[in-house]
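Protein folds are increasingly written down as discrete tokens. With that in mind, we are printing a sequence and the tokens encoding its fold.
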Amino acid sequence: MGAVYQACDLLREQFGEPAPQIAIKTLNEDFSEFHDGQALLHSEYAVLSRLHHRRVVRVFSFEVDPGSERAFITMELLKGCTLDELLLQHPQGLPWDQAREIAQALLEALACAHEQGICHGDIKPGNLMLGDYGIRLFDFGLSHVSEAALPGLPKLARDRFAALTPSYAAPELLDGADPTPDSDVYAAACVIYELYQGEHPFQRLSAKQALERKLSPQAPTPMPLPVWKALQPALSLDSGRRDRSIGPLLAAFQKAPRSSTLDRCRNHLHTTVSRLIRRNGRHVSVLK
């Protein structure tokens, strides 16, 4: 629903900021036609401005261009590659320590959001950026906030905006329900499974299609059994069998042993990301 562009903050540049480059997010052409589109963009800004975590993209301001009357958000420029780009280089999945680092970063970001009554609503590999600064979760355009957390914040009319990513959306989201912590748990579990196995747990089918075919993912080979025992219920197509919190899955990764090759794997991850940056020659991408 948004498009992101690299820009230079001229005021920062004037005052000698060594890195004045920023990212600007605005609505794409389709969504900008909705009369409440700018209110929804402000809602994303309101959400991000309350999330202060090293694994979540940092937002700076919400502005409206006087000439075009078009709203936009300014935020930190993420230099790197998205997780889906990295996975293309590893069709068999990532080594345990590499995948563990990314999985734990994602779960930590979600734990922070959920503690503040915020559900992301669109967890997928394309919404995780990896770079020299580490790992960042971004694109909260489909997020849902509890009324208690931000009273009166405009909500996304999900029957009007068909913006979900079906292969990572929990069945209840496909039925029109609002995102919840356990629907984020399901999406995160799909991403984590893909990190280790190199393939989507349900063959990139939607949850409803997976239900119809009675698909059941097998344990990824490099994953320790205690972690799989936490991941398996998170992949359940029945929301009643999923944990209501990201906590158990995060705890399983925090307790999991690190292999003796951690430093080598981390260096390999950073080398791969740097190579992708050089090859692609870009820092930001259009968001779906």
